[in-house]
């Protein structure tokens, strides 16, 4: 195979932002075969305002490679790139839930319609995201390729006896879609400890205190500290109202913890048969799911075992091969 270069175009991370995209593609680059040379181009400015975005787009034009891969969020960087050599990764369409109709139309044009038209191939992390894109714009479905996320090294089997008397629940994320408020209501009166990763707002603090929930709150954790929280928990609660993917499901399954997650969006696709699926908008359903995991040992062991089998489909090596095949396809097209 002849050597070639893939340029990974990445956003400039916000000071207090989410670094999941950066972590994801750093792991991918580290495992690429030797005939693929990779280079990361980080935009000079954060994705704020018209002029900074225009500058970032022009800058990207002058830094192209044999293959251009816009890794997410800054979809507009595709505008001046060579279409036939450009891949765009779209992680989710959450931005289309913006409350303003005008904003949704602008986002639809500049984050979906135009970037997709200016890219030869689109990768998405779930079938749910692909379906969302096709719901919002007209596009050849064959142009959109599903390549899921993967489990990072470090999330490995860590045996722990289930604490059925006072289980420790791990909840990751405090943004509106993470559905913490309904979870708090659902576990009222259940003897448990809730560990929350993510900075709480005033309303969430108030709910936790009003419902007398025993909880601890962590944020700005290192990856090792997050893994330690998984090790200590008995159940992962991931009852989001929307997710582009849902990596915590796989992380908990890899460590062999019971998972309760939502029956909508991408979560059933990611969890497979290795989780208790509930309606995230129904507090009673969430509560009953948690109680079933706590009280029904046979059911709990069954979803833990199926979760362990499920994660085999999401190993880094498996995902790398899919990206390499895509790069080679584009190179020879």
TrEMBL record:
PANTHER family noted in UniProt: GLYCOSYLTRANSFERASE WBBK-RELATED
Matches recorded under InterPro entries: Glyco_trans_1, Glyco_trans_4-like_N
Native organism: Rhodocytophaga rosea
Residue ranges occupied by any Glycosyltransferase subfamily 4-like N-terminal domain in the UniProt entry: 59-151
MF (Gene Ontology): glycosyltransferase activity
Domain Glycosyl transferase family: 159-309
Alphabetical UniProt keywords: Transferase
UniProt keyword annotation of Secreted present: no
Protein name: Glycosyltransferase family 4 protein
Lineage of the species this protein comes from: Bacteria, Pseudomonadati, Bacteroidota, Cytophagia, Cytophagales
Presence of the UniProt keyword Transferase in the record: yes
SUPFAM superfamilies for this protein: UDP-Glycosyltransferase/glycogen phosphorylase (SSF53756)
